[in-house]
Design brief:
The complex is a heterodimer.
Chain A lengths: L2 H8 L8 H9 L4 E4 L6 H12 L3 E5 L3 H13 L5 E4 L5 H9 L6 E4 L1 H4 L2 H8 L3 E6 L19 H7 L5 E5 L4 H10 L6 E4 L7 E7 L5 H11 L4 E4 L3 H10 L3 E4 L5 H12 L5 E4 L14 E4 L6 H8 L9 E7 L4 H10 L4 H12 L7 H5 L6 H12 L2 H27 L4 H8 L33 H8 L4
Parallel strand pairs in A: 1-6, 1-7, 2-4, 2-5, 3-4, 5-6, 8-13, 9-11, 9-12, 10-11, 12-13
Helix pairs in contact in A: 2-3, 14-18
Chain B lengths: L3 H13 L5 H9 L4 H9 L13 H13 L3 E2 L4 E2 L1 H7 L2 H9 L5 H22 L11 H12 L4 H19 L3 H6 L12 H8 L3 H18 L20 H11 L4 H8 L3 H14 L11 H10 L8 H7 L4 H12 L6
Antiparallel strand pairs in B: 1-2
Helix pairs in contact in B: 1-5, 1-6, 2-3, 3-15, 6-12, 7-8, 9-12, 11-12, 13-15, 15-18
The chains are: A alpha/beta, B mainly alpha.
Chain lengths: 472, 340
C-alpha cells in the first residue's frame, strides 16, 4: 500500500517484517507503542508516514546526541534537507533560527531537555505537529535499565504542545516497562506492536572460568571468533587495558575527545580495525550491519542491557555470536557501579540537615564533596525538592534493591543449565522457540573458520599524505 | 616507564620555581583567561602549555599524586625533587615544550578543524564515498559548507595544499610530521587515534598527542605568508591579548587617561589594571613611565632576584609601590628591557 513512497523516498523495494502494520496504524492516526529490536528498521516507521500525510512537523525526542546525529546523517544522505536538531551542540543563534523557521522542516530532533525549554515548548505549541515520537521510550520507566529523570516530564510536555499523536518506540520493554510508558506518556488506547526479542541468527554462549584466566581466554577467543567483533567491559580503564592486549583492537569510551571517538567509529564502520573494546557508551545509534561477534568481558547490569548490546551483532541476518565470559564474583563490579549512582545515606542526611538550616543548593556540592554535574548530585537535588528525608532514604534503598534484583537476573543467565535463549525470551514474556545452533547448553556451537586479517604495514608519512590527497 | 609528556609537565613545575601554587598551574593547563593566569603563563614561560592540557580538578589531582609517588615532585613546596629535575632537563623535553603553541591555541585548533573536515569532505565527494565527519563542530561544518559553495578549481587547490603541507612538514621532520599526517582522514583512510599514532612512534598516547599539537603549531608557523593554506585561518587571530583588554587599549590609544577609561567602561580599578598589565606583557612599545616613576622602575629592577618573579619581596622592601606597578615593571623586564 505504501510501497510507492517507500521506493521513491527511501529507495527500498519492500518493507521489513512488521514495518507495514506500524506505518498503517500511524497513518490511521492512532497512538502507537512499538517494541522492536535494534536494527529492525524503527526509524522508517515514523519517517515514512510524514511523506504520506504531509501534515506538519514530526518531532522526535531522543536521549543521546550520537543517536540524533546518526539519524540525521542518514536522512540527509538520502537527500532530505528538511531536518534539524535542537541539542546542546547548537548555539543560541542557531536554535533561534531553527525555532523561527519551523515550517521549513519535516523532522525535528531534540533532546528531552531541549523540549522542556519554555520558548521551545511555546514555539512547538504554535505549529502544526503531525506526530511526537519518543525514541528509546524505556528511559521513561524507573523499571527500565536506563531510567532518565529528564524523560519523566515528557507526558506533561506532550500536553503543552497540544497533545499531538504520539508514538513510543523502544528496543526492549518487559511488561512493567510497557505499562509505564503508556501511563506516563498518556497514550490513548495505543496500538501495540511487539516484535519478538529473539534474534535467531545470534548464537548464545557463556563460558565460566576463573578470574585470572579471563584475559588469556579473551585473547584466544578473539583469534577464534569471526570479526568484526565488539568487546564490552564495565569501566573505561579496563577498556583501554584490554584494547592494548588484543591485536588489531581499539577502545572506545565516553572519556575520549570527540575527534578521537569519531576516528574510532569511522575506522570500525569501514572495517579498518576489526575489534572494538568499549563500555556501554558505544553502540546506541551505530549502524554497522556486519558485526559478527559480541563478547562480554564483564557482566552487564541487566538482561535488557545485555539484549541491546548483543543485538549489535548480525544485523545483516547472517550468523553471529554472543559470548559472555563469567567468573565468580564478577557481579561485584556492577554492584559497585550501582552503589556509585546513588547518594550515600550519610550524604543524604547531611544534605537535608544543611538545607533545613538554610544552606543554599549551590553550596551543597562543596559540602558533600560532589561535582555539581554528577548525576548523583542531580538526583539528590531532585529528591530534596520532592521528598522528605525518610521518603528519600526509602526511595534510594528500594531503587538499589531493584537494581540488585535485575543484576541477579543477569547472573542467573550466566549460571543456568537450561536453554539460554529460553531464559531470555521468558524474561521478555515470550514463548520458547526451537532452533538449530541455539546456545551452548542446547549443543556445541562451533565457530566458522575465519581468515585472519593481515594489516598493511606502516607507511612513511609522505606516502600516506599522498594517499589522502589522491584523486586516483 | 618515563614518557616525554611527563617531562613536559615536570618542566612546567620547574619553571614555576616554587613561587606559584598547584592551582596556578592547573589554571594555566586549562587555559583560564583570567589576569592572574595569563600573568603566570607569561612570567614563568608557560605560554606554550596554555590550555593544551584541559582536565578536571580530579584528574589533575591524580596526576600530581602520581608525580609525587614516583618521587619526582615535592608537593609541599611545589618544586621538583632531584630526580624530577633530571627528567625535566633533556633537550627533547624543552624542544617539545616550546613548540606546543598554547598561546595560539584557538587559532591552531580552529584551523585544524576546518582543514581536516574540508579534506575529508572534499575527498569523499570526489570518490563518491559516504563518510562520517571527523569533526563534530558546527562552526567548522558551516565554514566548510560555505567554502565548498565558492566557485574555485578545488582540485588544483587541493594539489597545492598537498604540496604546502608536505614542504612544511619536511622542514619540521619526524616524529611531528607523522603525528600530523596520520590525523588526517581521506576518502579511504581514516585518521588514527593518539593511541594508534603512539604505537607507530613507540611512545605513549599523551606524548603522541603533544607531538600532534606541536607539529601542527609548527606547520602553521613555517607556512609561508602567501601559502594558499592560509585561507583556512580566515578571520582568526593569533593575538594574545584578551578582548576586553584590547578595548581598554584602544581607549588609551585615543588619549584617555586611566580614570577616563575606567569611567567610560564602568569597570573596577583592578580590572583596568589587569588590562594595563596585559598591554605591558604583550605590546612592543609601552609607556611605562606613565604608570611608574623612573626611579622606582630602576629600584625594582635592582632589587629583583635574577631567578625570581615573586612580587612580594619587592613590595615589602619598597613600601611605596603597588603590586600593580611591580607587575608592570616585571612585564617589561621579562620582555628583555632594562632600565638600569
Amino acid at each position: 500500500m505504501y510501497e510507492a513512497t517507500l521506493k521513491r523516498v527511501f529507495g527500498y523495494e519492500s518493507f521489513r517484517p512488521g514495518q507495514h502494520d506500524i506505518i498503517h496504524a500511524v497513518i490511521e492516526g492512532q497512538d502507537v507503542l512499538a517494541v522492536m529490536p535494534t536494527g529492525a528498521g524503527k526509524s522508517l516507521t515514523f519517517q515514512l508516514p510524514s511523506y504520506i500525510k504531509n501534515q506538519g512537523l514530526t518531532v522526535i525526542v531522543s536521549p543521546l546526541l550520537s543517536l540524533i546525529e546518526d539519524q540525521m546523517l542518514h536522512i540527509r544522505e538520502r537527500g532530505e534537507r528538511g531536518v534539524a536538531r535542537l541539542t546542546s551542540m547548537e548555539s543560541a543563534e542557531e536554535k533561534q533560527d531553527i525555532i523561527n523557521h519551523l515550517k521549513r522542516y519535516r523532522f525535528l530532533y531534540l533532546s528531552p531537555e531541549q523540549l522542556a525549554v519554555p520558548y521551545v515548548t511555546r514555539a512547538l505549541a504554535n505549529v502544526k505537529i503531525q506526530m511526537l515520537v519518543i525514541d528509546e521510550a524505556h528511559c521513561i520507566s524507573q523499571w527500565g535499565h536506563e531510567f532518565r529523570p529528564e524523560y519523566a516530564r515528557l507526558g506533561e510536555l506532550r500536553k503543552q504542545i497540544g497533545s499531538p499523536q504520539c508514538m513510543a518506540v523502544t528496543a526492549t520493554a518487559p511488561e512493567g516497562v510497557k505499562q509505564d510508558i503508556i501511563e506516563k506518556l498518556a497514550l490513548f488506547s495505543p496500538e501495540q506492536f511487539v516484535h519478538s526479542a529473539n534474534r535467531p541468527e545470534i548464537r548464545l554462549l557463556v563460558e565460566r572460568l576463573e578470574k585470572e584466566k579471563k584475559l588469556e581466554r579473551l585473547k584466544e577467543l578473539i583469534q577464534a571468533i569471526p570479526k568484526p567483533a565488539v568487546v564490552y567491559t564495565a569501566t573505561r580503564r579496563e577498556a583501554e587495558a584490554l584494547a592494548f592486549e588484543l591485536e588489531d583492537a581499539l577502545f572506545y569510551h565516553g572519556g575520549m575527545s570527540t575527534e578521537d571517538r569519531r576516528l574510532v567509529q569511522s575506522q570500525f564502520l569501514r572495517d579498518e580495525v576489526s575489534v572494538m573494546v568499549c563500555t556501554s557508551a558505544f553502540g546506541m545509534g551505530v549502524n554497522k550491519d556486519n558485526v559478527r561477534s559480541v563478547v562480554h568481558f564483564q557482566l552487564p547490569a541487566t538482561v535488557e542491557a545485555y539484549m541491546q548490546e548483543i543485538g549489535r551483532a548480525g544485523r545483516d541476518g547472517q550468523p553471529a555470536f554472543a559470548v559472555l565470559l563469567y567468573a565468580d564474583g564478577d557481579e561485584r563490579i556492577q554492584q559497585f557501579l550501582i552503589d556509585g549512582q546513588y547518594p550515600k545515606d550519610e550524604d543524604m542526611r547531611l544534605a537535608y540537615f544543611e538545607r533545613e538550616n538554610g544552606t543554599s543548593l549551590a553550596q551543597l556540592p562543596r559540602l558533600l564533596r560532589m561535582n555539581e554535574e554528577d548525576p548523583k548530585f542531580l538526583l539528590l537535588k531532585q529528591l530534596l525538592t520532592e521528598r522528605s528525608l525518610q521518603e528519600a532514604l526509602d526511595w534510594v534503598k528500594e531503587r538499589k534493591r531493584d537494581r540488585y534484583r535485575q543484576l541477579g537476573q543477569m547472573m542467573d543467565y550466566a549460571l543456568i543449565r537450561t536453554c539460554r535463549r529460553d531464559y531470555l525470551l521468558r524474561y521478555f514474556s515470550e514463548q520458547t522457540v526451537d532452533q538449530e545452533e541455539c546456545c551452548d547448553v542446547c549443543g556445541p556451537i562451533p565457530f566458522p573458520d575465519t581468515p585472519q586479517i593481515v594489516r598493511k604495514n606502516v607507511t612513511e608519512w609522505k606516502i600516506r599524505l599522498t594517499q589522502i590527497f589522491s584523486f586516483e | 616507564m618515563v614518557h616525554l609528556a611527563d617531562g613536559v609537565l615536570l618542566l612546567a613545575i620547574k619553571r614555576l620555581n616554587g613561587e606559584r601554587s598547584e592551582r596556578s598551574l592547573y589554571h594555566v593547563l586549562n587555559g583560564k583567561r583570567s589576569a592572574t593566569t595569563l600573568q603566570d603563563a607569561f612570567f614563568y614561560e608557560l605560554e606554550p602549555l596554555f590550555g593544551q592540557f584541559p582536565q578536571t580538578a580530579y584528574s589533575y589531582e591524580s596526576v600530581l599524586k602520581q608525580l609525587e609517588k614516583r618521587g619526582w615532585l615535592d608537593r609541599k613546596r611545589f618544586r621538583l625533587t632531584e630526580a624530577g629535575e633530571l627528567l625535566a632537563s633533556p633537550e627533547s623535553v624543552e624542544q617539545l615544550f616550546k613548540r606546543l603553541g598554547g598561546e595560539r591555541r584557538d587559532y591552531n585548533a580552529t584551523t585544524w578543524k576546518r582543514l581536516s573536515l574540508f579534506v575529508q569532505t572534499f575527498m569523499s565527494k570526489e570518490h563518491a564515498r559516504t563518510f562520517y565527519p571527523v569533526q563534530a563542530d558546527r562552526p567548522a561544518e558551516q565554514w566548510v559548507k560555505q567554502l565548498l559553495h565558492l566557485d574555485r578549481d578545488w582540485k588544483a587547490l587541493m594539489r597545492t595544499f598537498h604540496q604546502e603541507i608536505e614542504q612544511a612538514l619536511e622542514q619540521i621532520g619526524d616524529p611531528y610530521a607523522t603525528a600530523v599526517v596520520y590525523r588526517f582522514t581521506g576518502a579511504f583512510e581514516t585518521g588514527l587515534t593518539y593511541e594508534q599514532i603512539a604505537s607507530l612512534l613507540h611512545v605513549d598516547a599523551e606524548t603522541a598527542r603533544l607531538y600532534f599539537l606541536a607539529g601542527w603549531n609548527e606547520l602553521l608557523m613555517v607556512l609561508p605568508d602567501d601559502a594558499k593554506l592560509r585561507g583556512f585561518t580566515y578571520g582568526l587571530s593569533t593575538d594574545r591579548m584578551t578582548y576586553s583588554a584590547r578595548e581598554s587599549y584602544e581607549l588609551f590609544l585615543k588619549g584617555y587617561t586611566f580614570q577616563q577609561v575606567q569611567a567610560k567602561r564602568c569597570l573596577r580599578t583592578s580590572t583596568i589594571e589587569d588590562h594595563v598589565v596585559e598591554m605591558a606583557m604583550y605590546l612592543e612599545v609601552f609607556p611605562l613611565e606613565q604608570f611608574v616613576p623612573m626611579e622606582d622602575v630602576v629600584t625594582i629592577e635592582e632589587l629583583r632576584h635574577p631567578d625570581s618573579w615573586a612580587l612580594k619581596p619587592i613590595f615589602e622592601k619598597m613600601g611605596r609601590v603597588s603590586y600593580f606597578q611591580i607587575r608592570l615593571v616585571f612585564a617589561r623586564l621579562k620582555r628583555g628591557e632594562s632600565f638600569v
